[in-house]
Amino acid sequence: MTFPSAAKPGLFIAFEGGDGAGKSTQAALLTQSLTDAGHSVVRTREPGGTPVGEKLRSLVLDHGQGEIDARCEALIFAAARAAHTVQVIAPAVARGEIVISDRYIDSSIAYQGAGRGLGTSEVQQINEWATENLWPDLTVLLDVTPLDGRNRRTAGAAAEDRLESEPDDFHADIRHAFLDLAAAHPERYLVLHAGLPIAELASAINTAVQTLLANTRGTP
Ligand code: TYD
Questions:
Q1: Cis peptide preceding 47, ω within 30 of 0
Q2: Is the full-model pTM beyond 0.90?
Q3: What share of the chain is helix, strand, coil (3-state, %, to 5)?
Q4: Number of domains in the chain
Q5: What is the pLDDT of residue 8?
Q6: Which atom from ligand 1 is nearest to the alpha carbon of 60?
Q7: Cα 137 from Cα 196, distance rounded (Å)
Q8: Is 2 among the domain residues?
Q9: Please, are residues 216 and 6 in contact by the beta-carbon 8 Å criterion?
Q10: Distance (Å, rounded) from C-alpha 96 to C-alpha 98?
């Protein structure tokens, strides 16, 4: 696995976690606080983030698209990610901007590798190829139990997509895969309990990002 070097100008931050973890809320709060501080921020999401990625998103998430087997699903997510990396993430980082992505490679390792049983190292390999080994500088993992995730999702109005509607043991496998990834690379993860108050989570995330900015740019 290779990681972006500390000398590069931009920063790449990914939010990961099970469905209902609150990633989008925290990604929005971090975007706002960094923008307020004068940083140039690109907020994006997976699957999606590009025109082709958004089409692939509806193909893989909407119900009623016909049968999509596990390998096909993994390759669709990887294809969307290839476009996202080359068209959005890498250029923004090269311009010195801060990219905040709602989900990235870890989601494929957890959902397709562990959840669908395709194998975490196999799914990691196809994604390293798809992204030319571009890994985030920091991954914020919002850890949520399957039950809490389901309760938080059903509290909202939106109907569950193809992945969300999988049973709890699927979501338990995903949770453990995320935690394993974080444990294997503690230097690039911030793991937080998703049930903490929103302001507390936002403050912990901000502190970690300020530290990273100070380390990579010399200034917060
Ligand atoms: P997302 O839009 O983040 O849903 P939510 O905001 O509810 O978390 O992600 C959509 C779904 O796609 C989610 O169930 C996770 C799944 N997914 C994968 O299975 N593999 C992937 O590589 C990605 C990026 C997402």
A1: yes
A2: yes
A3: 55, 15, 30
A4: 1
A5: 46
A6: 12
A7: 24
A8: no
A9: yes
A10: 7
Q: Whose CA is nearest to atom 15 of ligand 1?
A: 163
Q: Which amino acid is at 220?
A: P
Nearest CA to ligand 1 atom 17: 107
The pLDDT, as a whole number, for residue 170 is 92
**3-class SS of residue 164:** coil
CATH of the domain at 151: 3.40.50.300
108 Cβ inside 6 Å of ligand 1:
yes
Region for 73 from its dihedrals, namely left if φ exceeds 0, alpha if ψ lies in -120 to 50, beta otherwise = alpha
Q: Rounded CA gap, 98 and 92, in Å?
A: 7
The answer to the question of residue 191 being in a domain is: yes
HEC secondary structure over 72-133: HHHHHHHHHHHHHHHHHHHHHHHCCCEEEEECCHHHHHHHHHHHCCCCHHHHHHHHHHHHCC
Give the structural domain span for 36. 11-217
Q: How far apart are the first and last CA of the chain?
A: 27
Count, residues in the chain = 220
Residue 79 Cβ < 6 Å to ligand 1? no
Phi, psi of 101, rounded to the nearest 5 degrees: -110, 130
107 lines ligand 1 (CB under 6 A): yes
Residues of the chain with pLDDT under 70: 1-8, 156-157, 219-220
The CA distances from residue 186 to 2, 102, 148, 191, in Å, are: 15, 20, 24, 9
Question: Is the CB of residue 98 less than 8 Å from the CB of residue 143?
Answer: no
